[in-house]
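Table S2 (text version). Query chain:
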Amino acid sequence: MCYVRHMVLQFTDKGIYCPAGDFYIDPTRPVDRALITHAHADHARPGMRHYLSAQATRPMLDHRLGKISAETVPFGAGLQLGGAKVSFHPAGHVPGSAQIRVDVGGEVWVAAGDYKTVSDGVSEPFEPVKCHAFITESTFGLPVFKWTADQELRAQINSWWAANAAQGQASIIGAYSLGKAQRVLASLDPNQGPILTHPAVENTNQVLRAQGVDLPDTIEITPSVDPQKHPGAIAVVPPSAIDSAWTKRFGPHVTAFASGWMALRGIRRRRSVDRGFVMSDHADWDGLNEAIKTTGAEKIFVTHGYTSVFTKWLCEQGYDAQDIDRQDRTTEKEDDG
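Corresponding structure-token output:
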């Protein structure tokens, strides 16, 4: 069993803290210096005195948090903060998402944040980072979670859309506005019909397009846009819009939800959608195990998700693994899935 020489990062009630550099990673409460892995609301919170992120994350931080005191570094570039050298490396979760590498006196820890090991065509691909200790999520840390291959997923979504259009019905697919929505959009065949977007999705698209993310042409559903004047259309909307009065504007329609949670039938029924597509911005069971293996780390800290189950599994595989949350969080929430 491997024991780290010292705690480069500590787990506190404010978040992951680095004493040598006097900073927090994705803090949950206001702090003086916050290093941010990505712009989802459960990782990038308002109220920090100063933010530091990867360069690719900054535009979305500005979009979501407004005016903030912040600096950025390119992926892979080192920055000295007190006694700690830090760098940001692609996490593959959503566009701009990063793992944070922290080196204190040659002891290297990596806080992965949320990550995905399979390239999705819109996010910077996951980059394995060698380290002594690795802090991993476990959102989908059960063997039952195994993602559909991207090519098959594209075929499923486009076939569903085409079948609905042939029946004179609009297609409405729910996907979180940052990351998942763009992945759905990149999967669509624009030759099949118009692609409509909810304002929350389109606002995010505009930020990412300005960064060079390639997305198909879309039509934002503003008050002056009548969805029924776009027959055979598909609309990409936040999950909260699926069951709202807003969707009545479409007339006859069929609904779907894109999420890793669609692998579980009970959650699919609870979502009350006609179709579920197993599409996730997180690593599945195989992805989690492969990511940990490629780091070369022997000390693993497990957070966010099926922590106790995944920690037990890692210990059985010979890792020195520790459950940080100590309470499994096994239901979907905003920005998860």
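Notes on Table S2: The first strand starts at residue 10 and ends at 12. The chain is about 20% helix and 25% strand.
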